[in-house]
């Protein structure tokens, strides 16, 4: 794995982005083993967002590729009459952040993990990027002047103020309109995630205020 990574010059940091590492049981042990052998400092940056919104977004992405799949309401439950959420469905399971973090904390101290808020990354990208740069020990080069909000996509775009090249915005797979989900299902999912969210806030020492966000809607 190290052999296929690009060469890093002095003063550079090489990063690899694989979101599935955070929810893959074997990943912490394997990365810890590699880091210990090579005396690397492992820095983990995890983008988290409201797990209910994340699950619907996940489903929306899959639906665009497989329009024949069952509805979100069907997939979310083992037994809807009894209100039993199907936590084995990946769209639901990924949002149980506390369980995944527990696995990572067996190998890495919390000080080596930065949690980036998916919601604030949209509303204040420069602020979140400042935290990332500080965490990595980098000079704050990416600032407010590098972003503008694309109202069509509903996400910020990245631009280079020093040249006239077109801004980089999220691709077609991002910013899709979510299907309308039965409000009762949303309510049940919020109840399901709430204790896990509270546990996650306690473990990280950060309150992502997902419950407050939901009460505002």
UniProtKB/TrEMBL annotation:
Judged by the first EC level, this protein's enzyme class is transferase
Q: Does the keyword Transferase apply?
A: yes
> What is the protein name given in its UniProt record?
Sulfotransferase
Q: Which UniProt keywords apply?
A: Disulfide bond, Glycoprotein, Transferase
Q: What is its EC number?
A: 2.8.2.-
Residues holding 3'-phosphoadenylyl sulfate: 49, 57, 174-178
Q: In the record, what lineage is assigned to the organism producing the protein?
A: Eukaryota, Metazoa, Chordata, Craniata, Vertebrata
Provenance organism: Chloroceryle aenea (American pygmy kingfisher)
Q: Could you tell me one molecular function GO term of this UniProt entry?
A: [heparan sulfate]-glucosamine 3-sulfotransferase activity
């Amino acid at each position: 794995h190290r052999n296929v990574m690009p060469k890093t010059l002095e003063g550079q940091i090489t990063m690899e982005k694989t979101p599935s590492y955070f929810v893959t049981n074997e990943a912490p042990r394997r990365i810890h083993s590699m880091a210990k052998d090579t005396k690397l400092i492992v820095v983990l940056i995890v983008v988290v967002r409201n797990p209910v919104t994340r699950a619907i977004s996940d489903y929306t992405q899959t639906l665009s590729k497989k329009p024949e799949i069952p509805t979100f309401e069907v997939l979310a439950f083992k037994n809807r009459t009894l209100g039993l959420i199907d936590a084995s469905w990946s769209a639901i399971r990924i949002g149980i952040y506390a369980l995944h973090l527990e696995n990572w904390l067996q190998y890495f101290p919390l000080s080596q993990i930065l949690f980036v808020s998916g919601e604030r990354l949209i509303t204040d990208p420069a602020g979140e990027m400042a935290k990332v740069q500080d965490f990595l020990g980098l000079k704050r080069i990416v600032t407010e002047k590098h972003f503008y909000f694309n109202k069509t996509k509903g996400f910020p775009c990245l631009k280079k103020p020093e040249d006239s090249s077109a801004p980089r915005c999220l691709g077609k797979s991002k910013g899709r309109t979510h299907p309308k989900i039965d409000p009762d299902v949303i309510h049940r999912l919020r109840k399901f995630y709430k204790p896990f969210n509270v546990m996650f806030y306690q473990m990280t020492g950060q309150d992502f205020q997902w419950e407050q966000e939901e009460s505002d809607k």
